[in-house]
DNA sequence: ACCGACCATTCAGCAACGCTTCACGATATC
DNA sequence: GATATCGTGAAGCGTTGCTGAATGGTCGGT
């Protein structure tokens, strides 16, 4: 009888590509992974892997079985979800990964509602950027992750992941309340300003630079940080200008001024789960709580930048 | 991680109803089955079974999980089938259950063709009536079974089973070549004849009696046997009349006369596999070989009875 | 109403499975 | 060519999961 845990190992190998990575992901020793694959080959009577250089790649048969493994593992999670739905109350632990701005604004009110409705459901929230969050989702490290997409920079669709839109968050120009950059007539007035922005290694950092270039401004990024609270502080204290998402701008910019950029760009924020957990009651509960939190946000629109 | 073999046990419990029957079906001791179920309840944190009287019945949660188990197990067989399809040649053992008349007429030529095309594929054929054949199919005792349906007596659809029609086999009146019943003008001339027929405990026996009664004849069954070769012999030697399927009548009735009954009743013969093995190359190969054997049968139509 | 048959569970014991650790050969990188 | 990385194999050992016997409970038959 084909073993699910071994199929899981094969599936992870298909996803990660090396025995070592699989071992790390599943908390096994590489030897154990190797033995599981050997066992799988013995059981099926088919050679599933092939050594190419010092890497192990799947044969055609291996890919076929790995594809089935993915379907089966999704089925297992669906079974567990349906089983959880038969229980009267939600319980257990739900592990969530979120990037900073949602963790700052949406998660706390959602958790307040949730813990009132489902006192036995424990929720752990881990701060992760989108990429590692997805990686952790597929590795079963997290059960639900928050993701974001910047205009024109769509996230690739990942097999086995089910995504649901949560909100559209405006990307606003934030300038100090006083000083040389406090009242730009157009974006070009900020060509010489000090900018603070995410590093170019992450999606928001890429987008900010691309977008400003598209408007004819090459930003001079003096303060490069992924921390939006830090960016907000730099703007508030008059040291920089920045493009700040509405979720952060709403509460953390103090007296700094907000202006809506031309074209009113928005990032799209979504939740994602492994497909098999789409109908899990805990997934549903958290998603609706987050949606409610998003709906009750102040949606005042700042004045337009010329 | 949910264990497939335990899910299989739960599925068998849903199908068979008692721990003992499950144990027999899976070649375990009842104790092992009980422990597996306990382990499953522990893993899922849900009570799946409930003791009612001296029986064990599934709770709602248990039924939910058993339903998923059925789907998952079907998926496993689909995986194995697709895996077998990646291999260049067919090999292994295919276990078949067939009732007598098909085993007599179609199986041998089909196997001749098959062993020529797939020398490494071993086929075992076991003679079983339709009911036990299906039971064996679900218990993984057989991989493919032959079934039959008599007019008006449809087999119930069984979950997890995929059926494909094979041929329609005429049900013919067989009378001795000489003696008082050798030339009936109508079926009513045989009201006083000695009949040989299947016992009323099996589908063919039920149908024969019903059908004759519908024609106004209450058959006096003197020789009750499930063995169609024996029935054929009794007709051939002048001791009885019978309704014999074409597959047997074609070769085993010697000089006895065949007459087509009013309405030209036919039994429908089909093959059945567990749904997951529908696309297994061995399934496909045997089904096409059987279909070819059926197609090359002599299809001469005997004269009509008045 | 009692006895026997049947059903499920529990416990102890034991075999087999499946992991880790360690050592090794092979391969890519600097 | 030294070094790190990768996958595999053998030994050892803890855990899992089976069998078999004993127990408690339930139903049907006499």
From TrEMBL, chains A, B:
Residues 1-59 form the HTH lysR-type domain. Keywords: DNA-binding, Transcription, Transcription regulation. PROSITE patterns: HTH_LYSR. Pfam families: HTH_1, LysR_substrate. InterPro entries: LysR_HTH_N, LysR_subst-bd, WH-like_DNA-bd_sf, WH_DNA-bd_sf. The keyword DNA-binding applies. It comes from the Bacteria. Belongs to the LysR transcriptional regulatory family. This is LysR family transcriptional regulator. It comes from Brachybacterium halotolerans. The lineage of its organism: Bacteria, Bacillati, Actinomycetota, Actinomycetes, Micrococcales.
